[in-house]
Amino acid sequence: MNVKNIIPNKEFNIIGNNKYNLSEYLIKTIMIVCSSVAIAVTLGIIFSLLFETINFFQKVSLSEFLFGTKWSPQTALRSDQVAAEGSFGAIPLITGTLLISTIAMCIATPLGLFSAIYLSEYASKKTRNIVKPLLEILAGIPTVVYGFFAALTVAPIIRSTGETVGLNVSSESALAAGLIMGIMIIPLISSLSDDVINAVPQSLRDASLALGSTNSETIRKVILPAAIPGISGSLLLAASRAIGETMIVVMAAGLAANLTANPLEAVTTITAQIVALLTGDQEFDSAKTLSAFALGLLLFIVTLILNMISLKIVNKYREQYD
Amino acid sequence: MINIFITSTKLRRSRELSEIRFRWFGKLAIGVSLGFLFVMVGSILLKGKSAFLSSDIAITIDLGPDNVDINNINETRFDALMKKSLRQTFPNVKSRKEKKKLYGLLSSDMGFELRDQILNDTSLLGSEAKLWFTASDDIDLLLKGAVDLTLDEDYRRISDLEVEWISFLKDTDNVRKKFNKKFFTNGDSREPELAGILSALMGSILTLSICFIVSFPIAILAAIYLEEFAPKNKISAFIEVNINNLAAVPSIVFGLLGLALLLNVFDLPRSTPLVGGLVLSLMTLPTIIIASRASLRAVPPSIREAALGMGASPIQATFHHVVPLALPGILTGTIVGMAQALGETAPLLMIGMVAFIADVPTSVVEPAAALPVQIFLWADASERAFMEKTSAAIIVLLVFLVLMNLLAIFLRKKFEKRF
């Protein structure tokens, strides 16, 4: 309920105390300024990234960045050095990011979805009250902890298992990072899908059960099809989270820019490269430092599009059944 | 007729089976997720708990006037005195290489430790005294049983000679394990046995304070405006879309914003809690706004109507009646946002809060580390002893997160009103 709706026009204010009106006007202005901070931050992000990216593209061509397949940013030691400016083809980084995110989604989608289905359709209220907060703990654990666990516990296990089977596994394999990232985004998928499944009207369930279908048939053939748009929205949001995740890949995935689809090899991601490029010395006139901002802009645009689509889907879907 | 009956039982059986299977998939998914949670937290607890104990070694030192001049304590060369006492404890050690190993039993800070103990208790001077010193990281690991002695000598960092010395010290009761106070009172250090989390902890506290001071008022005012006053027009809708999107922007992008805008344009000091707090506050802003709006929405319109009916202005109705009722929810959202900010690492890396900082920061414009960044740095360190330190730092971080969340739950349970 909106206060404004209750008193629609100002003339209704019979008190008419000028002192109050002035201070109220001030307070309101301050509040409007605070609300527009969100817009300012978005604009700040866009302009600061855009500004440095334009600088970057004065040194490196856009087509090399988007379609080049070799990533090796170097700072020249001498001006006449061979390949002094390095090469800035972002394709290996994009494929690496996609590889790790795909592994993560392959882990998180079934686990998150089945958890959500079980919690919303089968579990008793008591189990739900215990399990749901426990699952949300997974979302509350800082990503640096996941990164530590991935790099020092999971990666060695995968490596030694691979060796016993006779596979050559890199110690910074995409698999370890993707696996742990998948676990990290389970609660995101499960809690969003849970909301969506709960929003499916009870009448659909009752109708299906009354026709003699079992619980699982009702879920598979009635509830899930009805909830699919919302669930896909939650998956998109999770994918955007996976693409933007930084600490797990920085600690577990390494910096080797390999163009490969083999999850046992080391790959690098956009976020890991940004961190590598910007920690340590920064020169804001070298293509190496500036390339981090171009990568940042790419990341921002991709995640923004994913978020916009998913928010739109989820909101639209919610309204449908409200 | 019979035929239909048989197929229908078969069909029913298979439907029942698929029902059971489906239910088990759900249980399995939850089991795997929670199982992972327990394995991860459990393994970190197991690895980290030994870091809360540290090993000390007792050495008998002659503090007679030949070695320490009572009137001029600061002139004494404590390091040399320590080395001499170690040689006296193990008189058989002769070669240079062996001597170096012998000095390596204790931490490189042994000279300072001796000086501090003498300055604390000058009555020690004048005679022989048995004093305790911190063991070096490798010896500490050996005493905690973390060194595999079945390996060949060349493959481990501890030689047989050192093992022999330690077992001699153990037999003569000159080794003890006690609570590792240094872990909580020291700053970062290159030596694992001396490294502590105080500097990182202080850095985190300062950063979070800035984050709170900046984001809390802005977020609350923005939430109140959007929920209570904003006209339903395109601008409000645009602000709303912006806030929802900001909540999902990768954290590293906020770091880039901090680097480009706060450091390069506004020229704020690098690596400081001031910049870190500002960047984190931009990140927590959407979280707090969204939670506060939900909480304001839950206050029933009758409260507003009653206040307005009694002659309050809209601002008075909101600030005197609606906001106090929504405050528990707002605070809960704020604490959750702060907990998120406490664990955030990536944006801090961007603004240079990854430097090696040994001093405990005292103001927000001094370079500082933060707890998650310290974890990141230690996880990368090559010494094996840093692994248990990393796990211990994670435990401390998790304890803080648990405490913050418990506070949020407590606030919600205690003050929440259902209308």
Can you describe this structure?
The complex is a heterodimer of chains A (322) and B (419). Chain A has helices at 3-6, 18-35, 37-59, 62-67, 91-122, 125-140, 143-165, 174-199, 202-210, 215-244, 247-252, 270-278, 287-321, and strands at 71-72, 87-88. Chain A is mainly alpha-helical and 322 residues long. Chain A has a single domain (87-321), classed as MetI-like fold. A two-stranded antiparallel sheet of chain A has the order 1-2. In chain A, helix 6 packs across helix 8 (174-199) and helix 8 crosses helix 10. Chain A is globular. Residues 7-15 of chain A have low confidence and may be disordered. With 419 residues, chain B is mainly α. Chain B has two domains: 54-180, no CATH class; 198-415, MetI-like fold (Orthogonal Bundle), CATH 1.10.3720. Chain B is built from 16 helices and three strands. Chain B has a three-stranded antiparallel sheet. In chain B, helix 12 (301-309) runs antiparallel to helix 13. The longest helix of chain B has 48 residues, at 2-49. Chain B starts with a helix and ends with a helix. The model of chain B has no long low-confidence stretch (mean pLDDT 86). The chains are: A mainly alpha (322), B mainly alpha (419).
